[in-house]
Amino acid sequence: MSAVEAAPRVEGRSNRGSTTWMVVPALVLLIGFFALPYLTIITMSLREASTRAVYGEGFTLAHYTTALGDFYIWGILGRTLLIGATVTVISLLLGYPVAYHLAKSRSRWTSLLYIFVLSPLLVGLVVRTFAWMIILSNNGVANQALQAVGLIDFPLQLMNNSLGVTIALTHVFLPFVILPLLGNLQAISPDLAMASRSLGASRMRTFWKVTLPLSMPGIQAGTILVFVLSISAYVTPAMLGGTGGRTMSVLVVQYLVDNFRWPAGAALAIIMAAVAVIFVGLYLRLTARAMRRLP
Amino acid sequence: MTGATSGVEKTIWDRLFTVLVAAIYIFLMFPIVLVVLLSFNSGEFLAFPLEGFSLRWFEALFSNKRFLDATLYSIQIAATSTIVNAVIGTLAAIYVARHATVARDYIRLIMTAPLLVPEILTAIALLFYFYEIRIGTDYSIGIQIGHIVVTFPYVFLNVSSALFNFDRSQEEAARSLGAGGWMTFRRVTLPAIKPGIITGCLFAFVISFDIFNISLLLKSLGSNTLPLELFDYLRFNFDPTAAAIASLSIFMTFAAILIIDRTVGLRSLRF
Predict the structure, then answer these.
(1) Which residue has the higher pLDDT, B58 or A38?
(2) pLDDT at residue A14 above 60?
């Protein structure tokens, strides 16, 4: 085709020096105001604390040793990870059927259902968390409903604890597990499942032996996304976590904004990020084994 | 599990599955519908039963100067982020798709990096950085740059995906017919990738309008974005005025979703 022949010629004409300017503004933005700032978290975490300025003269590892020797911080870290893991598992259990349904759906309602999945993602976090406060508060919608049908006599404590944060975060991040899975499931050829069925496997067996293994990349991408997002979430635990549902992000912001302890807060942020990286790394190794048999 | 041998059981499983999926869709939409319902309710409390239709909470909202200021401030920041990213994000996407040879994967990685790390960490990083380079948070420039950085990948990714789907031979045809670089871009490339630019921009606007962590840590004194104002309001008040603000923000989001759905289709979204 002529396009193919023409391609190298056009490539040759546009010498590289004349097009580099196109990417310069974006690179300036992302190196100058994204990559370099991340380095300052590290340097900040090594600064001496000071009562008179943001930080003192010298450098120290004290913020790390203090934080890692503090049972209170370990407790919050543990709670954060527990909430993150619970949200991830529930999101996968709820998200998989929806992704599966959307991938198979041929109905004219499909695009409406797609909006149902997408819209929670685009509605602001504060708004969604506020909605969950209306539902979960002591005289909120959930307690009203449970009392009306006579299941409980007194309101249950559904917020200002880890339970409320877990429920709300599951709603907030559920689309993030559905969308990667949906893309993955749609890319699997329906012929494979059909072949399995025609060879006599039941639908259940076909699902367990064919569809589920093939959707592992989608599961992996979605769960990592939800895990990282939920352990780093700030808005939801800050609004409906109370002290009983306080997580690492809330603690870090408290250090930075309320207590003005920037170096110590920076160390906490890095500990949080390091723990996330370790867990994601372990998870990748675990799931890699399950995915090795894939084509 | 029971196999596929019995037809009756199959339909029961199918029905159970449908009920389960329907319940999850309801779970996804219920909180949003609830907020909208309660914002039009005339009762004093954010609870059921509904007492009747009323616009009083929207009146309360529009007579509140703090909320109006915050809305305008949010629109200003989101619009600036969108315009800046429309230009530099599109240029960068074209460069990566058409011209980048060395380090292409690295460039692509750094262009999408703000999406890959938690927003709270980026906010903390920028807070420290602006202090170190003496920009500080006295002016809106800090919060504005933060919004631009975080929403950049949305424009970049959507334009990249439009470029990827666009048949390059059209550009070459224009070139071989004598059109210059700028002419080719304006008459051929730009119209073809316009849907990607529009989607990316709408996305960037909506995300910037909703961003919280960046705004919380980088805001200058005395100016709140709408999410911050709502957050502060909810610390001391819990009434349907908050639902009215939330409703407005939901309407805006759905308007954007409808525009995207009508122009390019939701499935082409990239994030």
Answers:
(1) A38
(2) no
Measured between CB atoms, does A280 come within 8 Å of chain B? no
Chain A partners within 8 Å of B122 (Cβ): 34, 37-38
Q: What is the pLDDT of residue A204?
A: 81
Chain B interface includes A30 (CB < 8 A): yes
CA distance A80 to A230: 8
User: Would you state the pLDDT for residue B270?
Assistant: 58
Map out the domains of chain B with their CATH numbers: 7-56 (no CATH), 64-268 (1.10.3720.10)
* pLDDT above 90: residue B164: no
B230 to chain A nearest CA, in Å?
A: 7
In chain A, where are the structural domains located? 66-291
Decide if pLDDT at A55 tops 60: yes
CB atoms within 10 A of CB A110: 15
pLDDT of B92 higher than 90? yes
d(CA A143, CA A237): 20
In degrees, rounded to 5, the angle at the alpha carbon of residue B188 between the alpha carbons of residues B184 and B192 is 145
Query: For residue A7, which residues of chain B lie inside 8 Å, CB to CB?
Result: 168, 172
Q: Does domain A66-291 have CATH number 1.10.10.10?
A: no
Is B254 in contact with A119 (Cβ distance < 8 A)?
yes
Query: How big is chain A by its Cα radius of gyration, in Å?
Result: 25
Which of A124, A144, A235 lies at the smallest CB-CB distance from B47? A144
The complex's ipTM works out to: 0.85
Exposure on the CB side of residue A9, measured as CA atoms within 13 A: 11
